[in-house]
Amino acid sequence: MSTPLLEATDISHTFxxxxxxxxxxxxxxxESIAIVGRSGSGKSTLLHIFSTFxxxxxxxxxxxxxxxxxxxxxxxxxLRRYDIGIIFQFHYLFKGMSALENISVATMLSGEKVDExxxxxxxxxxxxSHKTSELSxxxxxxxxxxxxxxxxPRIIFADEPTGNLDKxxxxxxxxxxxxxxRETESGLVLxxxxxxxxxxxDRIYALENRQLEVKKG
Length: 217
Ligand SMILES: Nc1ncnc2c1ncn2[C@@H]1O[C@H](COP(=O)(O)OP(=O)(O)OP(=O)(O)O)[C@@H](O)[C@H]1O
Ligand SMILES: [Mg+2]
Prior knowledge:
Elements: E1 6-14, E2 18-27, E3 32-36, H1 43-50, E4 58-63, E5 66-67, H2 73-83, E6 84-87, H3 99-110, H4 116-121, H5 137-150, E7 155-159, H6 167-184, E8 187-191, H7 195-199, E9 203-208, E10 211-216
Parallel strand pairs: 3-8, 3-9, 6-7, 7-8
Antiparallel strand pairs: 1-2, 1-4, 4-5, 9-10
Helix pairs in contact: 3-5, 5-6
């Protein structure tokens, strides 16, 4: 079997109360994994731990064969810039810039070209000259997804990426994400409240009773 993209071992974390304990999680190339669970169960926290933004109280995360604990700030920055793509529920586009300028910021940093194919698939190619403020919420969301994919990340972490989209557009976004990971041998970790979006993934875990319980796969 190929080397995992992400391997988390024995992860525990606590804020005001213990969120989860002794969690193991592995993501392989071309694999999509959904994490579901009640509001406040710690899904976003777990995603932050997997994606270098939070150190767990206990346990170890290996991303692309790097032990995060052993990396310098510069090395973590490099991982974030080239290898990790993060899609949040609330997009963060630069307001005064056009859609194309927003996407170009990311591709310039990672040394990639803007991928026309992805813009077409997301049905936003005709909106590139529009300013962020002239786009609808769902269009902005798709521009921010195009921005993430255009830098060609090896792992995508998506936290409710389809939360504010209609069903048809949400399906389209999921198709684009799943096509992307299959074509590029990357992986997807998706946090969602939407059972239909979760079902489109290879595996589903529910974060409950402080554990990841297997629901599919
Ligand atoms: N930086 C922080 N400091 C203190 N408590 C935090 C912090 N981040 C999250 N929490 C708490 O940890 C718990 C889990 O939060 P988290 O955002 O991971 O939940 P979630 O499962 O993503 O919920 P939702 O489905 O509502 O997005 C919450 O009770 C939250 O208040
Ligand atoms: Mg959350």
